[in-house]
Amino acid sequence: MEIDFADPGFVADPYPALGELRERAPIGWHEGTGRFLAAGHAEVNAVLRDRRLGRFWVDREPACVWEPFNTLHRNQMMENEPPVHTRLRSLVAQAFGRGHVERLGPAIETSAAALLAGLEGEFDLLAEVAEPLAVTVIAELLGVPEADRHRLRPWSAAIVRMYEVTRTREAEEAALDACREFAAYLDHLAAVRRDAPRDDLISHLVAARDGTDRLSGEELVASAILLLNAGHEASVNTLGNGMVALLRHPEQMARLRADRALIATTIEEMIRYDPPLHLFARTAAAEVTIGGVTVPAGSEVAALFGAANRDPDVFAAPGAFDAGRDPNPHVGFGAGLHFCLGAPLARVEMRAALAALLGRFPGLELAEEPPQRPTFVLRGYTRVRLRAVR
């Protein structure tokens, strides 16, 4: 089955086509993208976990043009396999694990409540809640001064457009500019923290060591940008996509309002039902068989998260939103070696935002049909206007 990833109808609602693809071939060759597509839950898990498949960064050419983008990617853990990945993840995890989730928890709850406190009537969930909350969380995590935080969102948004199946030359140029500016900014901030460390992630990345080993300057910058881009985009779109899904299932919203203990399972269902990341590609280092299909060495396989998350072999009534779904073995945070390092922080942020929304507004409804972003890999809306009702 051929899927046109640029087709507006597919981007607006990819799930029927992904379901048909999964039913016909849980893994199979896709001529349009020149790669294998894994759509079944078992097949996606195999792609993410099999060590014969990996991420092997190849610099974009010409190097003189793409060096700002290449430098960030060849030095980050997501684009490397062991032993490089093991070393980078160990050093970053050492810094990330120094109580940052616990430190930020109360501040996230306070920020979410403060953002909602002044809202009345209609408001844009993305622009007025999700985006400023995500920027605040990641800026507090990294230690970005408040006066500079407005720069983070545009940099992140420009860079992540590079990961789409289709993109324009203008988007590429904007991404290169963002890479240069963001890298220069973080390199400067790391130098400041090296001389005057604080209790923030940049300071801890500067100090992270494994014996005599430490992160290079380029590795530190690349790691910080990866955490911001992945965490920021995922948080904003998970809340936007998830609230739209929840409001389109009013019986589940009523169920959640009646039992706030369901907030945790509701967040997991938001990630499963309409995930913010839909595609993660890996390359075969050697010939490998997945789901009975032989993938030759050197071939790419794209794991389709949205398809896997609605596999009826794993999820009962996969097309329905179930606020209490448990167990919920979704692949929204990935799996295996590249499982999302920031998942615990993302969960804290999402739970705080949802709890604040429920506490602030006795009733909410969609004020309009939310317009979809014209992207597939990173799925979300351009705005989500909500109306408070009583």
Give the tags.
alpha+beta; five-stranded mixed sheet; Cytochrome p450; 390 residues; 15 helices
Detailed description of the structure:
This protein is α+β, with helices and mostly antiparallel strands and 390 residues long. The protein has one domain: Cytochrome P450 (Cytochrome p450), CATH 1.10.630.10. The protein has 15 helices and 12 strands. The strands form 4 sheets. It has a 5-stranded mixed sheet with strand order 1-2-10-7-3. It has a 3-stranded antiparallel sheet with strand order 4-12-11. Strands 5-6 form a two-stranded antiparallel ribbon. α5 crosses α10 and α9 packs across α11. The N and C termini lie far apart (47 Å).
Sum this structure up briefly.
The chain is α+β, with helices and mostly antiparallel strands. Helix content is 52%, strand content 11%.
Number of helices: 15
Rg, nearest Å: 21 Å
Computed structural class = alpha+beta
At CATH level 2, the architecture is Orthogonal Bundle
* End-to-end separation: 47 Å
Could you say which overall geometry the principal axes of the C-alpha atoms support? globular
- Give the amount of beta strand, in percent: 5-15%
Residue stretches low in confidence (pLDDT < 50, at least 5 long) are none
Number of strands: 12
CATH topology: Cytochrome p450
Side-by-side strand order of the widest sheet: 1-2-10-7-3
Topology as a string of helices (H) and strands (E): HHEEHEHHHEHHHHEEHHHEEEEHHEE
CATH class: Mainly Alpha
On the 0 to 100 scale, the average pLDDT is 93
Can you summarize the main beta sheet? 5 strands, mixed
Helix content: 40-55%
CATH superfamily: Cytochrome P450
Counting structural domains, the number is 1
